[in-house]
Design brief:
Strand order of the largest sheet: 1-3-2-6-7-8-9
Number of domains: 1
Strand content: 15-25%
CATH architecture: 3-Layer(aba) Sandwich
CATH class: Alpha Beta
Order of helices and strands: EEHEEEHEHEEHEHH
Shape: globular
């Protein structure tokens, strides 16, 4: 299918400094919550680039009242949105990229889980933060190749969101794929220590990548980008 593409200004892209490591730069795609958009994730994408990821944050294709964005219920449409970035803005980096990872919050987390479960041939791992509304995604794929998942949710979230996160995390663990579940003390938002936590999460995800030079660098140097003023602002559903 032909999916929606990104209008100018509706995608944030950050490229790491220096030369790509052996195996290429891993790519991290941020999928936002309902009502957010690409610009909400500028600081998060910058922090990911400091940890040696090519990071992209697209806006969902559905425009909501007030200018926020949303993802369609069809996971294939979200996958098509992501792939359009590689045919457009990232086409010049095709030879230096290695491994495609997802980082979703709320509605975006539901899509990230579903894409990793349904397209393990395309996505190498995922960070699932406070999964929110959306259809129940497919179950985990056979554990033929490790598809690591890091899952976090707030202990103060609505019960339905906590239960969803716990169920999905247990499902992924029982499938045989690597899975870390680390609740945080807040509500429905990114963990408040995310800019400190992320490099360690990234190193864990990349440790399942064969000969991951990036993972070794993150583990040895414990890269910890300083949060920008205001911290993590991704808080909507």
């Amino acid at each position: 299918m032909t999916g929606p593409t990104f209008p100018t200004g509706d995608i944030v892209i950050r490229i790491p400094d220096g030369n790509p490591p052996q195996g290429g730069w891993p790519v991290l795609v941020f999928l936002h919550g309902c009502g957010e958009r690409a610009s909400t994730y500028s600081a998060l994408a910058t922090a990911a680039a400091a940890a040696a990821f090519v990071s992209i944050a697209p806006s969902g294709p559905m425009i909501l009242p007030g200018g926020g964005r949303s993802w369609m219920t069809d996971l294939a449409a979200t996958d098509a949105c992501i792939q359009s970035a590689f045919a457009g803005p990232l086409s010049g980096l095709a030879g230096v990229l290695g491994g495609l990872y997802l980082c979703g919050f709320s509605q975006g987390a539901t899509h990230a889980y579903g894409l990793l479960a349904g397209r393990p041939d395309r996505y190498s791992g995922a960070i699932i933060l406070s999964p929110g509304e959306g259809p129940d995604p497919p179950g985990p794929p056979p554990a033929e190749a490790a598809r690591p998942m890091y899952l976090s949710y707030g202990k103060g979230e609505y019960r339905v969101f906590r239960q969803r996160a716990q169920k999905w995390g247990t499902r992924w663990q029982r499938s045989g794929h690597p899975c870390r579940i680390e609740p945080h003390p807040g509500g429905h938002h990114y963990p408040i220590d995310w800019f400190t936590r992320f490099p360690l999460v990234a190193a864990w995800l990349l440790s399942f990548r064969a000969n991951s030079e990036t993972s070794k660098i993150l583990q040895q140097q414990a890269v910890r980008p300083n949060p920008p003023p205001g911290g993590t602002s991704a808080t909507s559903s």
